[in-house]
Structures are given as structure tokens and as C-alpha cells.
Amino acid sequence: MAKQDPTSPSATPRPLEPALPPAPATVPAQNPAPQKLDGPLLKLAAVLLVGAMAALLDTTIVNVAVDHLSRSLDAPVSTAQWVASAYLLSTASVIPMTGWAIDRFGQRATWMTALALFGAGSLLCTAAWSIESLIAFRVVTGLGSGMVLPLVMTILVQAAGPQRLGRAIGLISVPIQLAPALGPVLGGMVLDTLGWRWIFVVSVPMILLAMALAVRGVPKGDPRATERLDVVGLLLLSPGIATLLYGLSVLGDSPYALVFAAAGLLLIIGFVVHALRERPRGPAPVIDLRLFRELLFGLGALLMFVFGICIWAGMFLLPLFFQQIQGTSAMTAGLLMAPMAAGVALVNLFMGSVTDRVGPRYLVVVGLLVGAAATAPFAFAGPDTSPALLAGAMFVRGLGLGAAMVPMLATAYRRLPSDQVPRASSALNVTQRLGAAIGTAALALLLSSLLAGNAQPETAFQATFWWMTGLTAAAMVPAMFLPSTRPDLD
């Protein structure tokens, strides 16, 4: 069986992290009994989920088409993979603007603009005449869809209030975790029956429906007419994130990867200096780094970074393992990822309610422990290992990581006032995506180094899975500093 370079960007789909930012903080409750999820909140969640599902499907549906696009548009695979990579970079770079846009224009206007840009980019992709034009149109698409998920969480958590945060997050977490798993399967079906242009049409009806529902279903919010954009911070942070992620994404494939990564890191350091500088009259920084001084928010951000590694490095390694060691097709590899999404969805059906009633410390610690234990079987797996056994391990891994995710998210904003949610959501999205990119690049480099050292592919994957197991277990250390009491006892 021919071996593919496991660390090249085109070797396997790199799904975007669904980027779930946490929820706002609370003051001690007058009534310790959690409030119910009422009709207006459920309606708002349903409206937001239509847009979220469109964005999440779009993150993974295209990844299965890279090889097909290279043939159809007469481009090498190394160029065609930028249809996915450029999209990732544009979504990451626009996140810092989301908090400012909500403050300046309000929730509904920002939501409608993001969806409109997302839809316009998707339609432009269907008219692409070359690989270069398609890549450019994917950048436009990413600028819109990159704001969708931070907007979903910001709008929802502000509407939910402190006593309903866990259940509100759990309510939308089920479909949010299922959508990326469905993307590759749906993409393969569309490719086989309708052709590659139709891949970009799939999300358009959902976008139009989300916009129609938002006219009455999404609150206008309270825009601040005097709010100015931190242009200097944006010019430092957004290019810094994009450049760093690009350098990490081509690590091992380009001689200039470290140059790009270092340049991106310097820009981000420049932003840190800029954001911490006192400015009595200037605009607020696009990401308020002073939020990290609050202990729970800082812990939440650290856990989001590590969680990004656990989830997305796994999403990089596991399909590679199924295809290269067990010899499955890309479609079958996508289907084998489904049990993990099912585990996350199942545990999220009740974890939101549990989070509102129980302290987060042991929920997160136990969830991470289960996730690490369920990753360990892959460190012993080989070409003859039963797919049913591995599917079971994937399901249990989803249960563990899903159980850790909801209380982790709800806790990060536990002590922050509601008006800080938009910018805090942006900060946590960026943190998670950096963790995802750095973790993926690090494990890809480890795997590549082992293979270059003439290690057998099976042995190289096993050693890399041991590292992934250890990283998941290591997240339990900061989790031990989370509160052991429920939110209303703060």
C-alpha cells in the first residue's frame, strides 16, 4: 500500500475547531434553584444553530475535495490544499474583530453581515474559473463564517444569564459537535453525484434561512455609537495570527516555515505590548488581555488552549491512522470518526444541567481522565486491530472530552460581567485555535521525525498517540484549580 506524507497539508483533512467560547460571569444568585430554559431562549438557540450548522459543515465539507480540485482545475495538490488552508487562516484572522463589531453595531447587524459575507463568498466559489480564484473566494467565505461561531456563543450566553449557562451551552453543543463529522461524508456524496461546485452550494440555503429567521429571532443588542476600532491592535494581531498559523501549517514542508512562524509570533508579542499599554482616551484593544488577570478566566483560557490540542491534534492523527495503517478510504475514515462525535453529543444531552448544579473541577478532571484512557488504545493499535474496538474507543473518547467541555466553557466566564462577553469570546476563540494549530503542527512534526528516522509507520503512529494521551492527561493539572462548588455559591 502506497504511503502518503502524513505531515503535508493535503495528506488529510484538517477540520476547523468548532471554536466554542465560554459563557459570562455571574454574581451570586438570589435563588439557588437554576432557572428553566424558556421558550424565547430555546427559539434564539434554534435560530443561531441554523447559521452555526452552515458554518461548521463548511469547515470540513471541502477537505475531502482537495485531490478532486487539483485534477479538475489542473493544479498540483500542494496548491489545491490552500482551498482549505486559506479558509482556516481567514477565519482565524477575523475573530479579533467580532467583539468590537458587536459593541459597535449590535448583535443582529453583526450577525446579518457575517452571514451575508459568508453566503456571498460561497456563491463566488461556485463561479471559480481557476484554483487561484477559488482560493481567493474561500478567503472571502472565511471572513464571514469565521465570525459566526463567536457570535453564536456571545449572543446565546448573554441571553441565558448565569443560572442557565451550562444547559444553554449543552443545548447547542450536540449539533455543533455533529456537524463537522457530517461534513466529510456529505462532501463525498456531493462530489460523487453533482460535482465539486455543488459543495459550495450546500451551505447557501441554510445561510438564507438563518438570515430570514434572524430578522425577528436575534436581538438588536445595544450598540455603542462612540466605540472605535483598535486599528493598530488589529493590524498587529490578525496578521500575526494568520502568519503564525501559516508557518505552523507548513512546518516540515517549507524552508520558510519557521520564518513565518517567528514573524507571526513577533507581531503577536507586539500586540501584547500594545494591548497592555495604558490608554485613557484611545479605543479598547480588540482583545482585552486584562481579562486574563481574573483567575477563572485565565484557567479557562489555558484549558481552552490545551483542549484545542486534545481535540484537533486527534482530528489530524486519527484519520491518518485509519487511512495509512488500516488502509481505509477517506470516506470510511470519516465514518470512523463519527463515534467520537456521537459520544460528545450523547454526554452533552445532560451535561449542561449537571454543570449548573455541580462544581466544575471534578467534572472536567474525570472527563479528561476518561478521554486520555480512551486515547491510549491507539498507542497499541496496528493494521489488524479490530475496527469495532477502535470505534468503541472513539465513542468513549467523545464521552470523556464532551463531559469536560461544557463545564470548562461555562466556568471561564463565571465571574465576568456580561458586557465583557463579546471580547472575552474572541480571546478564547483565538486561544483555542492557537492550541489546535500548535498541537497539530507539533504532533505532525513528531510523526514526520519518527518516520524520517526509519521507524516503522505503525510504530511511529503508536509513539505519537502516546504523546497525545499524555497531553490529554496533562490538562488535568490546571483543571484541579477550577472551583469545586456550583456557580450560585460563589
TrEMBL record:
Chain ranges passing through the membrane: 41-62, 82-102, 109-129, 135-157, 169-190, 196-219, 231-250, 256-276, 296-322, 328-350, 362-382, 388-413, 434-452, 464-482
Claim: tRNA-binding is one of the keywords in the record: no
SUPFAM superfamilies: MFS general substrate transporter
Chain positions covered by the region annotation Disordered: 1-32
Topology in membrane: Multi-pass membrane protein
Residue ranges constituting the Major facilitator superfamily (MFS) profile domain according to the UniProt record: 44-487
Record's compositionally biased regions (Polar residues): 1-10
Pfam families: MFS_1 (PF07690)
Primary localization: membrane
Gene3D superfamilies: MFS general substrate transporter like domains, Multidrug resistance protein D
Entry keyword annotation includes Transmembrane: yes
Ranges of compositional bias, category Pro residues: 15-25
UniProt-annotated location(s): Cell membrane
Keyword terms: Cell membrane, Membrane, Transmembrane, Transmembrane helix, Transport
Homology family: Belongs to the major facilitator superfamily. EmrB family.
Family matches, as PANTHER family: MAJOR FACILITATOR SUPERFAMILY MULTIDRUG TRANSPORTER MFSC
Protein name: DHA2 family efflux MFS transporter permease subunit
Organism, scientific name: Nocardiopsis exhalans
